[in-house]
Automatic annotation (TrEMBL):
GO terms for cellular component: cytosol. Catalyzes the complicated ring closure reaction between the two acyclic compounds 1-deoxy-D-xylulose-5-phosphate (DXP) and 3-amino-2-oxopropyl phosphate (1-amino-acetone-3-phosphate or AAP) to form pyridoxine 5'-phosphate (PNP) and inorganic phosphate. Belongs to the PNP synthase family. 3-amino-2-oxopropyl phosphate binds at N10, R21, G194, G215, H216. Homooctamer; tetramer of dimers. This is Pyridoxine 5'-phosphate synthase. The active site is at H46 (proton acceptor), E73 (proton acceptor), H193 (proton donor). Pathway: Cofactor biosynthesis; pyridoxine 5'-phosphate biosynthesis; pyridoxine 5'-phosphate from D-erythrose 4-phosphate: step 5/5. It comes from Rhodopirellula islandica. InterPro entries: Aldolase_TIM, PyrdxlP_synth_PdxJ, Pyridoxine-5'_phos_synth. One of its GO terms (biological process) is pyridoxine biosynthetic process. NCBIfam families: pdxJ (TIGR00559), PRK05265.1-3 (NF003625), PRK05265.1-5 (NF003627). Keywords: Cytoplasm, Pyridoxine biosynthesis, Transferase. The lineage of its organism: Bacteria, Pseudomonadati, Planctomycetota, Planctomycetia, Pirellulales.
Length: 246
């Protein structure tokens, strides 16, 4: 059966460019509108504790202006959690954060959770926000997520994106195996991190893949061809996988 994959466009790094001069442009709000015109099914944004790119102002405006799904990425930090519950995005994706990291390095350790993640999930649920966890493709993590009854798991595709040679198939296998666990547990299967125009199709072809969240590669392409076209190119790639799946 063909499956139609939602494309979530992460506009964090439009804000990275803006923050390089601490100015007003480029504006991620405008980028999000152009991404929608290019075919985005959702807009993803990560309000980090250090506010290195997306700002509180951006988040307030996204939820007022984005016409497709809003996906608010955050760590289990009380202040950001409170902002998320107040602005009411459609989705919240809990991710790990450390100040020293260049970008997200691994998935949440929900299997080793001492209650902090569970409490954050309940807070989000009480606020009526759909919940997703950013996890490594590890069976114990998926089992722990299923026990917490989250709406989706976003598999961390970073190791796949960095893999070379035979390791690529191994990483794809990990994603497919844990992807089946996620679907069997009744959760939506999402994936993201490090996906680009070259490596995306095998991940998109994983059975039951419902959504891919892609940011850095689309923003990078948009510097050359514009955001609308960069998103449209990625949209065409994902649709070609659906057609091939027939
Ligand atoms: C969880 C993930 O892979 C990204 O959505 C996250 O936003 C990466 O952090 P930066 O956007 O700060 O690189
Ligand atoms: N959750 C992954 C995401 O939103 C985008 O990650 P990347 O494509 O910027 O690596």
């Amino acid at each position: 059966m063909p499956h139609f994959i939602d494309l979530g466009v992460n506009v964090d790094h439009v804000a990275t460019l803006r923050q390089a001069r601490r100015g007003q442009e480029p504006d991620p709000i405008i980028a999000a509108a152009l991404a929608e015109q290019g075919g985005a099914d959702g807009i993803t944004f990560h309000l980090r504790e250090d506010r290195r790119h997306i700002s509180d102002r951006d988040v307030e405006l996204f939820v007022k202006t984005v016409q497709v799904r809003t996906n608010f990425e955050l760590a289990c930090a009380a202040d950001v959690l409170a902002i998320c519950c107040r602005v009411q995005p459609d989705w919240a994706l809990l991710v790990p954060e450390s100040r020293e990291e260049v970008t997200t390095e691994g998935g949440l350790d929900v299997a080793g959770d001492t209650g902090r993640i569970a409490d954050a999930i309940q807070t989000l649920k009480d606020a009526g926000i759909a919940t997703s966890l950013f996890l490594d493709p590890e069976p114990n993590q998926i089992e722990a997520a299923a026990n917490l009854k989250v709406d989706a798991v976003e598999l961390h595709t970073g190791p796949y994106a960095l893999a070379k040679g035979a390791a690529v198939e191994h990483e794809l296998g990990r994603l497919a195996d844990t992807g089946k666990m996620i679907r069997d547990a009744g959760m939506r299967l999402h994936a993201g991190h490090g996906l680009n125009y070259v490596n995306v199709r095998p991940v998109a072809a994983i059975e039951g893949m419902a959504e891919l969240n892609i940011g850095h590669s689309i923003v990078s392409r948009s510097v050359m061809v514009g955001m609308r076209e960069a998103v449209a190119e990625m949209r065409r790639l994902l649709d070609s996988v659906t057609i091939a799946a027939g």
